[in-house]
């Protein structure tokens, strides 16, 4: 009998952790496993804001996939998935290839939600992928260089839309990096303005009130202009139009929400903003051999509460998804997924952070330290102590071949 074919799409948090768990669980020759990803590297999505601001080395954030998986057990294919054919049990790639599967894991992550606001798609910068984040940094550098020629103040006005988790983390990195760039280009720092625009009345919606007031005060002290209760109506390459007027800026970094990858919708399945509802075993209810994890999945904790799109959720779903595929192959019982919230911590530069762990609101330098522990824990899951030592002590691991250009 042919060996069952398992195909995993996407090697972000959900995809890589599912793959690594399958690597451990499957007996030799029990199944063929193929991991397909757009790039030859796995990027640490939760650190992309650092790439956007130029505060982290590329090769600490983009790690070559073949160094993270056992290539004797897992076949890795670098390709972009262009469509899903559930009738034929096939995945179609941009190179025209069709890959058949017996079991499919879709872990293609998120796409940026623009809410149809004019100009956002074309002109705003997005923290979507390694490349799109790198494009932000290149653009920022260019603004400093161009300012020396035309002295246009719009070049030194940097607007971040959204004061949720990602927006605040991005602002924090800009606060850390821009003074260094100003000094490098001999530009007085008081010429630079960082603006954070948020439609809600407060920063960090959903966080504890004490965490919100701490963050607001800290950003004010850092010189960030915080514009809450402000709606963005339109943008182009020279300005952002908000309900209270126009802001002259050549940089709008958009971090106002995400939706699931569009491939399920394109395959004719019903989704909620691109997110595919999964059952308690992480399968698509109508397609029992198709699993979905991470930001692409809609997992309902109860009738009304979907799990949020976080790395934490993807990391907990990956191992259960792998266990359930192995159980399906072996004809044993599948395991329901239960989410355990371990807290969340948003960084505000390398030196401060804010969040909640268990019952406790944490702030400041201690929270920044906790954030580093969380990131180190993830590195441990990916590559054990060797990867942590390589990253933290001996510096960058061997460099991923990454070209920076706008887009995905
Ligand atoms: P992803 O990590 O996005 O991986 C998807 C993968 O699919 C990528 O490798 C991509 O290249 C690949 N892919 C996409 N399309 C295709 C295609 N057509 N063909 C082939 N491959 C494709 N969450 C937290 O819990 N804590 C945090 O502190 C936190 N901070 C964040 C900070 C930032 C700046 C951002 C952007 C997000 C943050 N998140 C955080 C959210 C978290 O990163 C996501 O929830 C998590 O990455 C979801 O994992 P995933 O595997 O579903 O998708």
Please outline what is shown here.
This protein has about 400 residues and is α/β, with parallel strands linked by helices. Helices cover about 35% and strands about 25% of the residues.
Question: Can you describe this structure?
Answer:
By secondary structure, the protein is an alpha/beta fold. The chain has 2 domains: 5-112 and 258-343 and 380-393, FAD/NAD(P)-binding domain; 128-254, FAD/NAD(P)-binding domain. 33% of the residues lie in helices and 25% in strands. It contains 10 helices and 26 strands. Strands 5-2-1-9-22-21 form a 6-stranded mixed β-sheet, with helices on one face. Helix 1 packs parallel to helix 9 (311-330). It is globular. Flavin-adenine dinucleotide (FAD) binds at residues 10-15, 36-39, 45-46, 48-49, 80-81, 107-110, 127, 129, 165-166, 169, 261, 294-296, 309-312, 314, 344. Flavin-adenine dinucleotide (FAD) binds next to helix 1, strand 2, helix 2, helix 6 and helix 9.
């Amino acid at each position: 009998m042919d060996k069952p074919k398992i195909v995993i799409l996407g090697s972000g948090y959900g995809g890589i952790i599912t793959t690594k768990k399958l690597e451990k669980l499957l007996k030799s020759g029990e199944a063929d496993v193929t991991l397909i990803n757009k790039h030859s590297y796995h990027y640490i999505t939760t650190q992309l804001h650092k790439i956007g601001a130029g505060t982290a080395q590329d090769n600490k954030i983009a790690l070559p996939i073949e160094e993270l998986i056992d290539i004797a057990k897992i076949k890795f294919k670098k390709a972009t998935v262009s469509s899903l054919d559930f009738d034929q049990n096939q995945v179609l790639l941009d190179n025209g290839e069709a890959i058949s599967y017996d079991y499919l894991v879709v872990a293609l992550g998120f796409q940026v939600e623009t809410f149809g606001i004019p100009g956002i798609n074309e002109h705003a910068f997005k923290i979507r992928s390694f490349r799109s984040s790198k494009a932000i940094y290149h653009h920022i550098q260019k603004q400093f260089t161009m300012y020396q020629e035309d002295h246009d103040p719009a070049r030194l006005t940097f607007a971040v839309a959204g004061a949720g988790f990602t927006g605040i983390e991005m602002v924090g990195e800009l606060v850390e990096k821009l003074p260094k760039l100003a000094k490098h280009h001999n530009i007085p720092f008081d010429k630079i303005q960082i603006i954070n625009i948020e439609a809600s009345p407060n920063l960090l919606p959903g966080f504890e009130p004490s965490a919100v007031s701490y963050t607001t005060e800290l950003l004010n002290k850092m010189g960030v202009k915080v514009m809450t209760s402000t709606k963005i109506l339109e943008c182009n390459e020279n300005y952002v139009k908000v309900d209270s007027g126009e802001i002259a800026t050549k940089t709008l970094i958009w971090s106002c929400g995400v939706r699931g990858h569009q491939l399920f919708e394109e395959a004719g399945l019903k989704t909620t903003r691109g997110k595919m509802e999964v059952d308690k075993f992480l399968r698509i209810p109508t397609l029992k051999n198709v699993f979905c994890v991470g930001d692409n999945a809609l997992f309902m904790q109860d009738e009304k509460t979907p799990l949020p799109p976080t790395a934490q959720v993807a990391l907990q779903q990956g191992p259960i998804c792998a266990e359930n595929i192995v159980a399906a192959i072996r004809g044993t019982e599948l395991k329901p997924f239960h989410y355990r919230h371990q807290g969340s911590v948003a960084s505000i530069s390398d030196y401060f952070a804010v969040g909640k762990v268990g019952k406790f609101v944490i702030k400041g330098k201690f929270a920044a330290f906790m954030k580093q522990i969380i990131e180190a824990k993830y590195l441990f899951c990916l590559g054990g102590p060797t990867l942590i030592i390589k990253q933290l002590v001996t510096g960058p691991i061997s460099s991923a071949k990454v070209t920076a250009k706008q887009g995905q």
